[in-house]
Amino acid sequence: MPALPHIASGKVREIYEVDSEHLLFVATDRISAYDVILNQLIPDKGKVLAGLSLHFFDLLDTPNHLVSTDLSGVDGLSEDELDDMKGRAMVVRRAQVIPVECVVRGYLYGSSWREYRDGGGPTTEHLPPGLKLADRLPEPIFTPATKATTGHDENITESETRNLLGDDLYEELRKRSVDIYLRASEHAAKKGVILADTKFEFGFAGDELLLIDEVLTPDSSRYWPADEWVPGRDVPSFDKQYVREWLDTTDWDHSPPPPDLPDDIVEGTRTRYVEAYDRITGASFADYLARAG
Ligand code: PZK
């Protein structure tokens, strides 16, 4: 742990304080499956996720919290820490986090499918009847959620979200979120990848509304290989399917502690993440690593 003040811990990421206006955002190599953090690290996973966020910050050119990937100006990091953080850390603008997860869905899956199947819920308010699991939606829908105390996000209705945010901020977040989803999903489609859904966070730095957190990573998004999408069926996720399939061969009931991953499963999972980077960015992860030093 660096000697910087620790601000927040996520399942797989950490935030430290740099100064009053800046934070250090770090993507770790931790991995979760079935909502449980596994015992093994996946080498380079944090760098893959940071590299994907940086790819999309650059591509989207929408106001965001990124300041720099150069950590040389951050006081209080040892040489070893600087080395360890290369390619996985960003200095970001400190913002007032808006307490709503801005989820956009282009396909009917996950909690939204379960609501739809079970007679409807907050995410299905604007959906037509007759849809199947994993169907493409007529148009992308904005389906906000709040961080529940249970740790699980809780889907909320349009009117609940409007009451939390006010109509003007609601409209602005919906517009920005759907616009970013559409641009990112068109980009992914060109690479044979479906962006089924994704989750954004926004915050205010003064009066500037910024896209914050990780963006369009496999941890914040559901990416599917286009050739494995069959409406009506479960679709394997790009990154986690491999490790989930191994976990499914064990008798683990998805409550902690999880079983230890064998070395070949760790290595195979790493390969899937690196493939996701290469495919989604159209660049080479080896080049990203070489540039990050
Ligand atoms: C911030 N989170 C969620 C992310 C965690 C928790 N630019 C920012 N300014 C202020 N706060 C945040 C950010 C960002 N990003 C985001 N919590 C605070 C989160 C990663 C790890 F533990």
Question: Can you tell me about this structure?
Answer:
- The protein has helices spanning 45-60, 79-85, 110-117, 158-165, 167-190, 241-247, 263-281, 285-292; strands spanning 6-9, 13-19, 22-27, 32-33, 36-37, 66-68, 89-93, 96-97, 102-107, 136-142, 145-147, 153-155, 193-205, 208-212, 221-225.
- Helix content is 33%, strand content 25%.
- Strand 4 and strand 5 (36-37) form a beta hairpin.
- It has 8 helices and 15 strands.
- The protein is of the alpha+beta class.
- The structure holds ligand PZK.
- Residues 8-10, 13-15, 23, 25, 65, 92-95, 97, 203, 212-213 line the site of ligand PZK.
Could you outline the blueprint of secondary structure elements for this entry?
Layout lengths: L5 E4 L3 E7 L2 E6 L4 E2 L2 E2 L7 H16 L5 E3 L10 H7 L3 E5 L2 E2 L4 E6 L2 H8 L18 E7 L2 E3 L5 E3 L2 H8 L1 H24 L2 E13 L2 E5 L8 E5 L15 H7 L15 H19 L3 H8 L1
Helix pairs in contact: 1-7, 4-5
Ligand PZK binds next to strand 1, strand 2, strand 3 and strand 7.
Keywords:
6-stranded antiparallel sheet; single chain; globular; binds ligand PZK; 293 residues; alpha+beta; 33% helix; 5-stranded antiparallel sheet
